[in-house]
Amino acid sequence: VKPYLERLTDGALYSQTVKLCGVGESAVETKIKDLIDAQSNPTIATYAKTGEVHLRVTASGADVKEAKKLTKPLVKELKSRFETELYTTEEDVTLEKAVIDMLAANGMTLTCAESCTGGMLAERLVGVPGVSEVFSSGIVSYSNEAKRRLLQVKKSTLKKYGAVSAETAREMAQGAAKALHTDVSVSVAGLAGADGGTKEKPVGLVYIGCYVRGKTRVKGYRFDGERNVVRERAPAAALTFLRECLLKDA
């Protein structure tokens, strides 16, 4: 069908995707409003993904070479505006692949310790070919007993702060790196719902810990939506946070 349609079309179209993480769609649109208002050829289209925003830059020209040339200045401008949030301009590169490539480039190994996500973060990671070069293992420590036994989370920490807390997420990340002897680890601890929430700790509250060669950072999130939505958004946030930590601490 494609060759047939190309014969019926005057000129050619070329598109390039710019992928962002760690920034919401409304914030992206605000940051590029002037570019959108002034667009003609090329154009920009925004697409909201789970934990990401993709921008598609499309130009038309007499041929693909000309159309591609027209996209370059706009893509360069987007790179300038989204320096740290932009993780790739390649269509086939996912956020997890970008993170794995960063780990490989720095000679680092990774493990993850998950609770409410039940292995969904590990699943995204192992879907990338060649991940075995950096990924050691994933630990699903759903119960408090498992957190204590497998990750050495202190009993006093669990009693004082609870399983869903910044303190527990920190110890989970540190314990995973120590147990598996890896340079980097990521932990996820949260309340996916549909019950179990309180006023102080509502459903959708998730803490993500990231350990990078001796330095540990923890970030709290509040995700809206039903159980599976929370469990899908948490791994995306974990990958984004891991990337942020690697940029700072690797």
Account of the 3D structure:
- Helix 5 (95-105) runs parallel beside helix 10.
- The protein contains ten helices and nine strands.
- The relative contact order is 0.13.
- Strand 8 (205-212) and strand 9 (215-222) form a beta hairpin.
- The protein has helices spanning 2-8, 25-31, 33-37, 64-81, 95-105, 120-126, 144-151, 155-161, 166-180, 227-249, and strands spanning 12-21, 43-49, 52-61, 86-88, 110-114, 135-140, 184-190, 205-212, 215-222.
- It is elongated, with a radius of gyration of 21 Å.
> Per the principal axes of the C-alpha atoms, what is the gross shape?
elongated
What is the β-strand count? Answer: 9
The biggest sheet, with number of strands, parallel, antiparallel or mixed sense and barrel status, is:
5 strands, mixed
Oligomer: single chain
Summed over residues and divided by their number, the pLDDT gives a mean of 95
Low-confidence runs of at least 5 consecutive residues: none
Tally the helices: 10
State the helical fraction: 40-55%
Sheet with the most strands: spatial strand order: 6-5-7-8-9
User: DSSP strand (E) fraction?
Assistant: 25-35%
Rg, alpha carbons: 21 Å
Secondary-structure-derived class: alpha+beta
